[in-house]
Amino acid sequence: MYIEIPQYEAARNTPSSRGVADRRTLPAIAAVFQCLVSKSMMDITIDDDEVESLFETTQAVHGHTCPGSAMGLRAGLAARKALDVEPDANKELRCEVSTGPAHPAHCFIDGVQVTTGCTYGKGNIEKLDHGKNALRLIDTESERAVRVSLDPEWFGHALENSPFIAERKKGVQPMDIDPEITESAVTSVLTKPDDKLLTIGDVEEVDLDDGGHGSFYWEHCSSCGEVTFQPGLRVVDGDIVCAECAGF
């Protein structure tokens, strides 16, 4: 597998004509973000057509090129293959990611969203804030799940020796890092065999709850007047208010 990463300026009004691996939902996402992204991106050429398409979409969604989002791409794709499922389209999949808001490799999550189809908009992905680059993908139809994490030996070595990480530790933003450094880091992630990059757990059967289906019951908050759905409603002194106005 060979990767060539020249620089190009993403066109504002010319979405990429390439397809993406998710034939149902991701093309529209890619088109929208390709129109919006005006930063300098990296054009990736990879022998694996699926990975190439997914990485192109990941860059468009994420806004810059980095190894963190590529790690999420690889982990999400491996989880999907372990369960033998297509990207989520109708909330048949759920995903738990072990990163959190202060995680330095938070970019991981965007790669996971692109490859699994689980998104915050659908409400079927959750951050556990465990400080790890790992995910658990759940197929609600077959009631099976698999956990995928980065290989600890490889990831530890990368964190200690990667020039890309060294630049990030100095506070250099991803788009400002020498493209050759970024190319090397991304190439390492996208071309390494699964058994060298990832720890893929056994597929296990799981007991599922109802998934927390949303309610369409709503009220106008008696304080701010905004429409608020049931999970966010509170009763204060007999008035129905939103959680924000209630002080939660």
Question: Helices and strands in order, then pairings?
Answer:
Blueprint (H helix, E strand, L loop, with lengths): L6 E3 L16 H11 L3 E3 L6 H14 L4 H17 L9 E5 L10 H9 L8 E3 L6 E6 L4 E7 L1 H10 L1 H7 L9 H13 L2 H4 E3 L3 E2 L12 E3 L6 E3 L3 E4 L2 E4 L6
Parallel strand pairs: 3-4
Antiparallel strand pairs: 1-2, 3-5, 5-6, 6-7, 6-8, 9-10, 11-12
CATH class call of the largest domain: Alpha Beta
Q: Which second-level CATH architecture of the largest domain applies?
A: 2-Layer Sandwich
| Secondary-structure class | alpha+beta
> Helix fraction?
25-40%
Kindly report the average pLDDT value: 82
How does the overall form come out from the CA principal axes?
A: globular
CATH topology of the largest domain: 60s Ribosomal Protein L30, Chain: A
Order of helices and strands: EHEHHEHEEEHHHHEEEEEE
Tally of helical runs: 8
Please give the number of β-strands. 12
Major beta sheet summary: 6 strands, mixed
Total domains, how many? 2
- Separation, N- and C-terminal Cα atoms: 52 Å
Instruction: Estimate what percentage of residues fall within beta strands.
Output: 15-25%
Task: Describe the model.
- The protein is an alpha+beta fold and 248 residues long.
- It folds into two domains: 7-205, 60s Ribosomal Protein L30, Chain: A (2-Layer Sandwich); 217-248, Wheat Germ Agglutinin (Isolectin 2), domain 1 (2-Layer Sandwich).
- The protein has eight helices and twelve strands.
- The chain has helices spanning 26-36, 49-62, 67-83, 108-116, 152-161, 163-169, 179-191, 194-197; strands at residues 7-9, 40-42, 93-97, 125-127, 134-139, 144-150, 198-200, 204-205, 218-220, 227-229, 233-236, 239-242.
- Strands 3, 4, 5, 6, 7 and 8 form a six-stranded mixed β-sheet that branches.
- It is globular and about 60 Å long.
- The model is unreliable at 1-23 and 35-40 (pLDDT under 50).
